[in-house]
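Job type: complex structure
Entries:
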Amino acid sequence: MGSVTQLARLVAELDEQLITCMRCGFCQSVCPLYGETGREADVARGKLALLDGLAHELLSDPHGVRERLERCLLCGSCAANCPSGVKVLDIFLKARAILSGYLGLPPAKKLLFRQVLARPALFNKLLSLAPRFEGLLTKPVDSLLDTSCARFTSPLGQRHFKRLARVPLHRLEPPRSTPAGASGLRVAFFAGCLIDKLYPGVGRAALKTLEHHGVGVEMPAQEACCGIPALSAGDTATFSKLLGHNLARLDPAKFDYMVTACATCASTIHKLWPLMCGSLAPQAQKRAKALAAKTRDVSQFLVETGLVSGQAPAPGPEAKPLTYHDPCHLKKSLGVAAEPRRLMAANPAWRLQEMVESDWCCGLGGSFSLEHYDLSQQIGGHKLEHIAASGAAAVATGCPACMLQISDQLSQAGRQVAVKHYLEIYAETL
Amino acid sequence: MSTAALYKEFQRLVGPENVFSDASDLLTYSYDAALLPSQPPGLAVRPTSLEALGRVIRLCNQEGLPLTVRGAGTNLSGGTIPAHEGVVVVTTALNRIVEINQEDLYAVVEPGVINARLFAAAQKQGLFYPPDPGSMAVSTLGGNVAENSGGLRGLKYGVTRDYVMGMSFFDTDGQLVKTGSRTVKCATAYNLAGLMVGSEGTLGVFAQIILKLIPPPAASRALLATFDRMQAASETVSAIIAARIVPATLEFLDNFTIRTVEDFSGAGLPTEAAALLLIEVDGHPAQVAEEAQKVQDICRAQGATQVRPAADAAEKERIWTARRAAIPALARLKPSVVLEDATVPRSKVPELVRFITDLARRYDITIGTFGHAGDGNLHPTIVFDKRDTAQEQRVRQAVEELFDKALALGGTLSGEHGLGLSKTRFLAKEVGEATIAWSRRLKRAMDPKGILNPGKIVGA
């Protein structure tokens, strides 16, 4: 740990971006966390002021700043609504990296990221063992949602969590490299950890959809995590390692697009790989940027290429009400909101019944939910109310992380509402 | 009381989780949206009940602690920047809409209720709360009343002042003072509510506010008129009013703002135009149809090169999106923004606009001007980089000249942002020393220890 002046110099590198905040405070209207707490340090303007304070040595408490900086869902609602176009997330991620570099990572995170997450083979191995022991420690609570909760007092608290898949996607659907079919297109499919390990059904729906549309698929063995947990914790070393691992397995020359069914992976790859790849060799940086440019959410890919087009059929007379939650990483980060709805409309067995504030964050925020479960639940509570008020029999979304949070909420409330990925709805028709 | 004992006492009053004393938290209560030096308070508290609010005020007064009330902190004149070692009282937890009365057309709110929330709640019940400051999505009604906020609808519907029927507020002893009532008429006692509106937290602290609601207009129509001469646009404004038509909104964009908005949003605005007027008339459908036609005729007669009525809701939305884009578009040009609100009689708008154009040239600074032409309340928006101290100095000088000009034209220093810290030293020019002396005596009577938002308005 160096001097505070040294830290100030590092943070001052963000000055060009920090100065663009004109302190209008408009981020207050969209910040899910500020909505609960009403505390200025919880909203983007407050956090930007803290970083400005560090940069100009008005503050000498980097721990205090880090603690407040980490009270953030990284949902990007502020950035999406900022009149001045402040790149809030870029600033926050870089600041987290600077502060973690300066203060060091907490030991538990360091162990988890460097020894497990950064080693995809080990990570897979460990998780493949877990389902065998899951029953000893947890008990099922909701068969519709496939959730369980702790049998005994546990560090997981009151959560109702989605059970690990018996067989992960990478074993159900082995690596492949299939040629382009009728569409003339080939894509790399980036499954992502949550789909691989918790929601392989979503991965299968994606692969079925791609096959149906005559799209060739490149699925390399042993993809690593997209890196967002490490970036959120400011662990750029682990992020670079994961990125390097993935770059070695994904050659952008071999496919037209890279697609994912995980909003968070899509957003991380598309936006953060190019932004945070600066420490890699020039060739690797070039590849990261090329992959980022080719990366789409599956719905975005299908609509953009015209593979799904034209008028959707009218819902049938027996159609069940379905509501949709806009993941922050799809709508606010990538501007993808109409495309998943277009796909779901293709299934006449369901009728879309919009909930209010469908783009209000579900409250998960990755590790935010681990560190601030109470706040995460409070924010999720609004989502629960809105889903219930819509009267839907199922709620669909485009992000497995949102699915986890919404399942937890519904399961704890004992609501009989199914949680689905929009691709599962779409694939029912194929 | 020692600092530690005081801290404990505040914790007892509002709960430990609502007292902030860490340097980091205090830094986040050191600024608002005005471009002024920040000043961290000694402590920040967030009372969750009106009882607790009253006790906090009483304790501050007993201990002689300066007290600044803060809602959303969107103030553009520094009114929420606290005093050194002062206490910031955050109202975000005092956010209950106590009542919306459909028979008697009023709402009772706590000071932390966000303007847009009341608007939506009233709308749900078929009623209308018209004051719409640009910050309405985040700013609190307590702040709106304390600043006498305006907005786009000022011309026809008036400003916050016109909707305050009454209120209760805490004096410095934490005693509740009541003024006004839930009735349309009220001739009882002093009109203290009138005094409290726009008092910027220097005379008392709001507890509950009674706000007038009205039935919403049944129909509305918007149109966009293009002018190749500023003078023609301005004369059009006067001609519309002279024809006994009062549009709900009558907004103006100058050429620089038009070009900046067009670059930003590609809305299809005529970038060669000297000025645009964005006009909306509302009311009974038949009246709207007639007035919209008349307004179009007047625009053409006054030399508008193009008049585009919005054919449908989507087109209307596009017109207002262009206006709403003015601040974001200008703000993205440079890091720092000064949004001025000096206001002149409507007929002086062309002269003020000419002056501002000349001002930008003389000081070599960038100014986009837009705003409420119908009110004579323009927003010359200066964008620059505050890190360039020479440039910042020029901006400050230009702003001073702007104030002098507005006053010379029979106008006022602030139309809707308040004096706060930023305009205090210019007040004598507008109202004279005797007014300031009288105001200070008033302030002393209501706040003998001078704890209520010291330094604001009259500098005491």
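Summary: The radius of gyration of chain A is 21 Å. Residues 2 and 145 of chain A are 49 Å apart (CA to CA).
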